[in-house]
Amino acid sequence: MTILRRVLPLFILLMLCTLPSFAQQSLLQSLKPDHPRIMATSDDFAKLSTERETDAELDSILKEIEKSADSYLKAPLLERKMTGKRLLSVSREALLRITTLAVAYHSTGDERYAARAEAEMLNVCQFSDWNPNHYLDVAEMAAAVGLGYDWLYEYLPDDSRQKIHAGLREHALRLIKNNYWWKTCNHNWNSVCYGGMTIAALALAEDEPELARLVLEEVKKNNPRAVGCYEPDGVYPEGPGYWVYGTSYQVMLIDSLETALGTDMGLTTPALLASSQFVAHATGPTGLAYNYADGGDKVGTPAALYWFASRTNTPDNVNAVARLSGANRRDRMLPFAVLWRSPESQASKPLDLSWCGRGEQPLAMFRTSWTDPNALYLAAKAGRPNINHGHMDSGSFVLEADGIRWAIDLGAVNYNDYEQRGIHLFDHKQSGDRWNIFPYTNFGHNTITVDNQPYKVTGQSTFTDYKPLEQSTGSVSVDMAPVLALAKVEKATRDFTFDAKNRQVTVVDHLQGVKPQASIDWTMVTKADVAIDGHRIQLTQSGKTLQLTAISDTPGEWSVSPCEPPEGMYGDSKRDTRLIVWSAKAPDSGNYDLKVELTAGK
């Protein structure tokens, strides 16, 4: 008994000391020992030079990559040059350069490309840091260096390996021990930061097992928050532009886990997979994306779509977006396209002409054709302003016809320009600076405003009804009351009807319980020339026309002005853009109805 008392504490201590190694083993026991192992293996790279001989698209992409790689051979090495608080542009350029050069080396065998990628990695590893105060910068640089280290492992001399290893550990991997806010967020920062850190961890896992384990443990615990934002139907709350950013890194994270460890940790959800439908439908016949939130309207053909096509057998998503995007068909993740393509994909079901997705930012889209550049197209949304990169844009829409985007979204401002002026761009509180930026408010969107009040930032508008496009007609209805709460509107709905046969979209607003004589403003932003004729407006652009007709029992009138921020608001001058407004006063009954018909020229 005395011996047991002496031995038992030692036994327990021994078990406690070995617990980390058990956890390490469970997460890293399936790690592939050889490099490359992140997103590609040596066999994958070896296939490039042979498969390009019979695969025209692959050969075209590789030629584009090799052309870019040639330009990098002569370019000066990157400098640690900040833009405001960000090093992000440098990190992104490093990722593009290193992955482009590495793929070009594997597709041609030309060691000049590998040598230049080695020089790029050694250069950035000598930076004082990768700017952890803005962690996206660290994450993208970690992805760049981690992939270069892994993909060129056999080429790199021992001395360079050691220096790159040390830089990747010092500037990225060891930082996993710090408590950063992005670790528990549910948007693009989670996907990007954990994506880059996962690549760094898997690149150095055999030499840094404890740090690699910490990264993988956190990914398993926290990354499902980011994946959850696609629920339930695949709509990305931050818009198509940020879908490209966040989802590209989410796919990189998943693909890295699968190739290196043989598991996706349960992160490949149906909603995530459905998001490729979202981004396809959010691209209009003009090739422009519906740029709600802070995203741009030019997203090209995201390389991530190839991954989705291979996983869901939906090559039509890639083909449709590529066809619509035309010359703007590549993004900075192009080197990954050659790894994610699946030329064996069978022809899939053609895309529907309408699509609706629920979630934090519900979205509905209708079109008359996927192949006609002059097709009629409507994209309309509900949602909530105070999500990451959100705007006060519930009830807003974009409209295209005859190759023109008639109703546009002003999109984002330049972050650094506004931050340098001391504006707190990401203060989402009701009184935050963000809502003094004109293009972020309801006043600068294609929606309706009551009593000159901003939208309630916590108001969640939803779709109350949706009918897909059948026999030339489809519709969607938005409950606007939650965002109009500051105007004390009791009930508010906005109904969109898409009439393919008559090439017309109808927007009907029903308001109840409005304060008598309160102002009611129906707004639309356009780049077209505007001619007002009573209740009608004719828009003209590039020889094409669109007519707007306002129908209401309550008197009102059209006005048009340059799209500039009113006094007391921030915003950039948009003298080539016009703000169309139908203005009225609420009747004494407090009930107001307005129907606006938007009809494409014959």
From TrEMBL:
Keywords: Signal. Pfam families: DUF4962, Hepar_II_III_C. Residues 1-23 form the signal peptide. Residues 23-244 form the Heparinase II N-terminal domain. Residues 374-546 form the Heparinase II/III-like C-terminal domain. GO terms for cellular component: cell envelope. InterPro entries: Chondroitin_lyas (IPR008929), Hepar_II_III_C (IPR012480), HepII_N (IPR032518). The keyword Manganese does not apply. It is found in: Cell envelope. The keyword Chloroplast does not apply. Gene3D superfamilies: 2.70.98.70, Chondroitin AC/alginate lyase. It comes from the Bacteria. GO terms for molecular function: lyase activity. This is Heparinase II/III-like protein. It comes from Aeoliella mucimassa.
